[in-house]
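Changelog-linked ticket: zinc ion example.
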Amino acid sequence: MLDADFALFNVDQLVTVAPGSHPEASGELGVIQRAALAAKDGKIVWLGAMDDVYDHVQLSPDATVLNTHGRCVLPGFVDPHTHPVFAGDRTGDFYARALGASYDQQLKSGGIMHTVGATRAASEDTLLNCAFERADTFLQYGTTTIGAKTGYGLEEGAESKCLSVLNRLQRLHPLKVIPTYLAAHVLPADFAGDADEYIDLIADAWLPRVDGRAAFVDVWVDDGAFTAAQGRRLLERARELGFEITAHANEMGYGDGVRMATELNAASVDHAVYLSDQDVAALSRSRTVAVLLPGTTLFLGSDEYAPARRLVEAGATVAIGTDFNPGTSHTQNMQFILTMSVLKLHLTAEEAIRGATLHGARALRMDDRVGSLEIGKYCDLTVFSVDDYRSIAYQYAMNLVESVVAGGRIVVRDGQILSTTALAPVS
Ligand SMILES: [Zn+2]
């Protein structure tokens, strides 16, 4: 018998996203019907048919039991691309874009620099309070892991402050937070015309002092951001220092960013809207995950969505994310991103769900711990108020989350946050 301190009962559809991992898991998402699941110390120890649970599992006297009464359960969403630490907002830019202003014009007249200014001015505790509320919201919408980027400081002290916020959030909140250092988000005004100098400063002076506080280093390679050569210089240095690497690339136009990132075996390349055939081929040959962010395309008022079908058909790994940020995608709702992925990226329900779970985990190089429901992985899962996973994208722009379990503990019940007290850190 297996000891357990948490059990999930009466699941109509347990979507494991691990086909082949269990004899009763069927279809490309590995769905177990009328299922149960058990966990101990935050990790899954058993899953299978509800009728069999007591043949295998012995619950401790103080075990928590969550009876879903016939709901659909998915792994907690893994949103690989978020910017949860910022102050200020870009409401004005949103409305101006809707009336025809371009992102490029806004960048020249202020744009992201409005939130950079507000973030620089805010105290670390103020930023932590904002980030903490946003972390609660991620959980309430069914997301249990985020890739969390800085990038609203753009000077050493402010970037360091934002990293400290992410590190404190990681320790204090049950949401799993993977800190990513994005000092090379855009070029700050005081370095205008000196992008090489700014990249050298980050690579030679700031990065060595990040010192274990970030898992990833990121750079934006694009029209109006950094060149592929500058991105390569920074990411090679980051890799030497032991960081995982990732890049924002090809969001605004064609260029060499995607190929540079795949050549360096980056964990992911994000946005990937404007892709040549060579870019698609490079992604399909590499381990680099294409993280597609259709909410950003919508919010920019553009009709140029990433060519997801070309990527999938070429065999590339496609993940999806919110890109939650104040300027170009103010949503934390991965359920809505599933809908966008079906309608605008033309993914199937199964491809979209895999993109929002297992492939998101792969983009964060965490697919050995999160992203699917398998023995030994974290017990991170979401109970939806539907009995069929195909209903989640279909009933669009709503919150269908009933309950969320993170690390084997119920953190959201009936849509309400239960507890945001500290859990054991992610190892
Ligand atoms: Zn971003």
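Closing comment: Example verified and attached. Residues 2-75+371-417 form a domain with the Urease, subunit C; domain 1 fold (CATH 2.30.40.10). The mean pLDDT is 95.
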